[in-house]
Amino acid sequence: MAVDFKALRDDLREHEKRVLAAEKAGGISVLKEKEAERKRVARADERLVQIHQCANQERREEKEGDDINWLMYYFGVDSGVVDPFWYEFTHQQRDMIESFGDAIKFGGDQAVAASRGEGKTTVLERLIIKYTLQGELKYCVLFQATGALADNSLDTVKSAIDENDRLYADYPEVCCCVRALNSTPQRATFQIAKGKRHDNDEPFTHVSTQFKWCGQEVILPKVPGSPSSGAIIATRGLDASVRGLKRKGLRPQLAAIDDPDTEKTARSREQAEKLEDRIDKAIGGLGSQQKPIARIMLSTIQSTISCAYKFTDVMEKPSWKGKRFRYLITPPDRGDLWDEYVQRRADDFRNYSQGKSTDKHCRQSHKFFLDHRVEMEAGAVVANPNRYNGTELPDGTRIEECALQHYYNQVARTSQEAVSTEYDNDPPEETGLVDSGISARTVQLKLSGYERGIVPPDCPVVTQGIDVKKTGLHWVIKAWRPDATNYVIDYGFYETHGTTYGSDEGVERAVYAAVIGRMEQLREANYTNSSGAPADVNLTMIDSGWQTPTIYQACLALGIGYYPAKGHGKSNGCATMSYSAARKESERCQPGDGWRMDWQETPDGRGVWLVNCDTDRWKGFEHARWLTPDGKAGAGYIYGSMTDTERYYIEKRLPQQSIEHHGFARHITSEIEVETMVRGYLRRVWKVKTGRVQNHWLDASYLSDVAAALLDVSVLRAPAAEKEESKPAVISSGTARDTASRW
After folding, report:
1. Does residue 203 lie within any of the structural domains?
2. Average pLDDT over residues 115-128
3. Is the pLDDT of residue 673 over 70?
4. DSSP labels for 460-508?
5. pLDDT of amino acid 267
């Protein structure tokens, strides 16, 4: 039987009408309407936030004018935060704060390595809050090594805003909206606000705040007149995709990269290079067309392989303006007492573990410190005197460390290498294949005793080698005696301007200008010999393996005494070539021992002499100079004199960064000659040592050696004192090497 749905609907409507009439007659419908209205009002009250006025506008503006004052007031001990700043900032911390503020306000890159636990992350997070609240930072991304760590960082920022009583008083346009959520972030979607504008005190009412307080990013409330309206603080892990970050038409202004290294990147050069590529390319390209993104990197250096080590190396990454802060700035005078203290503390641990003692708090070693405290602290300088722990013992005795004692307690607990790495950002030399035994310390110990720029006596030859890279020129200047005893009188880096990362646009002009600019800088150097007479560079060799035509043109423009050079050999992947002096000389070829000059045509028809070098031979020659004992023919030295502090560092094999020429020495020793099987044959080749990827001063230095060889400097040559007249060979840029004017 068919069902009449129309009739059923009509019956239902009639029934509803009768029910409604009955309720009206009994007053029930009025009560329902009142209840519904009451609920609507209650829901509206829950959504509505009354934003009070700023408690003290003058104070807010005054504090915003000084980062340190702002941090100490809004995050001091009375601010209500869990982890307040409880002591005045140290010199290092002030330096960090200034560097962070400059990067946020003016852009650019800043890399900082500080000891673990120094508070660098907390300082940066709270500075980001400051500049976001005052409207200067509209979009910031916090990067951590992993996504989980990044989420924790955002939670810290949210808690700092939500729980801070002083921010709540002076920044109500944000804090009132956040506190009104009552730990229910979903309410942010429906929240409305009323109050008075911060900028002109005009009232507003029932305005949707449209903010977000959960997920991978927070969007601050869109309150009329608020400087931070709609500002975004986002987080990402470096292990996730970071390209193309864009939110509501905004691109990130700041990338805050906190501890980017993991165990993999700190131990694997391949993984470190991948992370470096991500930071340089993916994150470096997040900005807008008109304004590139500013980047701040915080780190504690884990190894010489790590990205933190690279990005804080001003020679390798000059644009990052790297800063490495130490815990122990100056070691104590009585290192022997601290050695004994560390040994005693280790004995305390050992005796307790073996049941020979019931003292698990190292009272004996602590008593030794108290008995000798004045002597043990003499001469020492620590970056932060507030870094110490206190222990309350069951008997009521309190063992109170000082910051210096805390440092050596960590040495006893772990090792000097671990503390040098985690606290002083000075990881130990990486061990690996070693053949000759050369090390950075070997180079650092070979000090000449002469000041920078002084040519020692009996050194009539001065040469310069230049290694050319896109970012700039590494150069080394050496003074030579006829027996190849040589002195590095100066070295440095000349930055190239006008190049763009990831693009070769304009690179030729930039490199050409850099070479010419370096020579102008050289003319102003005013090198002198030991008697004060001017000393000129006789011959300069410029690497032309990259941007070859550009280097040719630069050498032609500079004229006599400037030659392009190119390395050949197994170590740099180039084909070997014959350098035998027995080869027949011609107008277009001049062979020598380990080098050969070949005439190269240039587009303008002038031509230039190219010096082809045996890379393997000259790198071996370079290392042999540093390993030659003092006083012997061919010994190598570098300018400067050793201080007592540096001597102590070297003798104790303590951190090297405070010793002069640390960076230069690491470049020189970045490669070693090893035996390896190549196509079934045992070959001697040059390889990069573990943790060494920078060898630019090594290349520049051996080019300076080749230049000296062209001027007839030789280890087997008699000293200059045995010659009545000694002068360098004259080399013309327009003809073959003049072999007539020898020593």
Report:
1. yes
2. 92
3. yes
4. -EEEEEEEE-SSEEEEEEEEE-TTS-EEEEEEEEEE--S-BTTB-TTHH
5. 85
H/E element, 324 = strand 323-324
Computed over its alpha carbons, how large is the radius of gyration of the chain?
35
Q: Which tokens hold the place of 374?
A: 């004045």
**Does the pTM of the predicted model rise above 0.85?**
no
Say yes or no: 659 and 633 in one domain: yes
Q: Do residues 125 and 179 both lie within one domain?
A: yes
Distance CA 544, CA 309 (A): 29
Please tell me what DSSP assigns to residue 561. T
Q: Is residue 684 within 8 Å of residue 617, measured between CB atoms?
A: no
Tokens of 524: 């102003």
Q: What span, in angstroms and rounded, lies between the C-alpha atoms of 29 and 463?
A: 103
Strands 608-614, 595-600: pairing is antiparallel
Same domain membership, residue 205 and residue 178: yes
Q: How far is CA 140 from CA 100, 241, 287, in A?
A: 13, 16, 11
Distance CA 186, CA 180 (A): 11
CB 242 within 8 A of CB 236: yes
For residues 384 and 530, state if they share a domain.
no
pLDDT above 90: residue 611: yes
Last residue of a domain, one of 366, 390, 422: 422
452 and 398 together in one domain = no
- List the structure tokens of 211: 């903010």
567 within domain boundaries: yes
The residues, any chain, with a CB within 8 Å of residue 314's CB and separated by 6 or more, are 320, 321, 322
* Domain total of the chain: 3
Contact 477, 456 (CB under 8 A): no
Residue 174 and residue 101 share a domain:
yes
Amino acid at residue number 395: D
Q: At what angle do helices 548-558 and 507-523 cross, to 10 degrees?
A: 30
Residue in the structure block whose two tokens are 């031509």: 607
Asked whether residue 444 falls in the same domain as residue 578, the answer is yes
Q: Three-state secondary structure along 401-414?
A: CCHHHHHHHHHHHC
Q: Is the same domain home to 466 and 406? A: no
pLDDT at 400 over 60: yes
Residue 735 domain flag: no
Summarised one tens digit per residue, pLDDT across range 450-473 is 999 999 999 999 999 999 988 789
Burial label, 171 (beta-carbon count in 10 A; 0-12, 13-18, 19+) = buried
**343 vs 157, more confident:** 157
